[in-house]
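Continuing the series of single-chain predictions for the mutant panel. This is the parent chain; the variants come on the following pages.
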Amino acid sequence: MDMKTVNRLVSAVILAADTMPRDELLDTVLRLETLGYDTAWLTDMYGREIYVTAGWLLAKTSRIRIASGIAHIYGRDAIASIQAGRTLSELSGGRFVQGVGVSHPIAATMRGLEWENPVDKASSYLAAMRGETPLSVRAGADTVPLYLAAHGPKMLGVAARHA
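Parent structure:
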């Protein structure tokens, strides 16, 4: 790694993209791109579907990366998540960044699901995303950067094991 790479400042913004008015969201992301921001991270909870929104923004921009930040794992199964991430990465020329996490109990209960031990849930979810379980899909190379939102040292351990 050269010094130019080491000294590069990365700039990112987290947007409440699931609830922002559509035109405001697009105008904001286009402005961030014009200003030279690297990444716009989109939230996922009560509003728009995060991967569809990311695809729309990737189609409307040319340089800025769009990230799911953080797509909660109770919203979709692991195979659907990795398929969405790989598809968005491929179709955008590698500008999609995938962030997933367990979120909070409301993420499960709002869908009628049972909240599980976060460490166990995240570990099994990442294993399926990475093709480490019999039910996993291995559709192409792992070309999408994958981040895990970690609350505490045990979750950091899960992230380290799946890095």
